[in-house]
UniProtKB/TrEMBL annotation:
Cupin type-2 domain ranges (all copies): 50-112
Species of the source: Papillibacter cinnamivorans DSM 12816
Record SUPFAM superfamilies: RmlC-like cupins
PANTHER family the UniProt entry points to: BLL4564 PROTEIN, RIBD C-TERMINAL DOMAIN CONTAINING PROTEIN
CDD domains: cupin_HNL-like
Superkingdom: Bacteria
Name used for this protein in its record: Cupin domain-containing protein
Length: 144
């Protein structure tokens, strides 16, 4: 369900909006928020609820790994988009689960007319890292 009103969205965003995602802001168009659900070093998996304001999206990026690795997105509130390079865009709604293999170029974010949240799970692997690439252009994202 598309949600433009922030108060209504916050009521449905059961894992909480968190704080401004300033550490990674340079890799986003628009404002995003991060609410860690597990703490690094205290859990073998890092999970965070990532919230995107309407129209916010991250840059193209790749979760690198020699073995294992990748990312899983569990959509929890609002509506968004996901796309792998060379493939059609996928509409994201609460309950959608996206499994992103390691070494696949992709982006994700909110639709222009909705707040959006997903839980991000970094899949463990060998020699994992994130490679941030170019922004998804406004004209390109608007076509989606």
């Amino acid at each position: 369900m598309k949600i433009m009103d922030e108060v209504t969205f916050n009521e449905q965003n059961v894992f909480g909006k968190g704080i401004a995602n300033t550490m990674f802001a340079q890799y986003f168009v628009g404002e995003s928020f991060l609410n860690p659900l597990t703490m690094p070093g205290k859990s073998p998996l890092f999970l965070a609820n990532v919230t995107f304001e309407p129209g916010c999206r991250n840059n193209w990026h790749i979760h690198r790994a020699n073995t294992g690795g990748g990312q899983i997105l569990i959509c929890t509130a609002g509506e968004g988009w996901y796309q792998e390079e060379g493939k059609d865009v996928v509409s994201l709604v609460p309950g959608t689960v996206i499994t992103i293999p390691a070494n696949v170029k992709h982006w994700h974010g909110a639709k222009a007319d909705s707040w959006f949240s997903h839980i991000s799970l970094e899949v463990p692997g060998e020699s994992t890292s994130n490679e941030w690439l170019e922004p998804v252009g406004d004209a390109y994202a608007a076509l989606r």
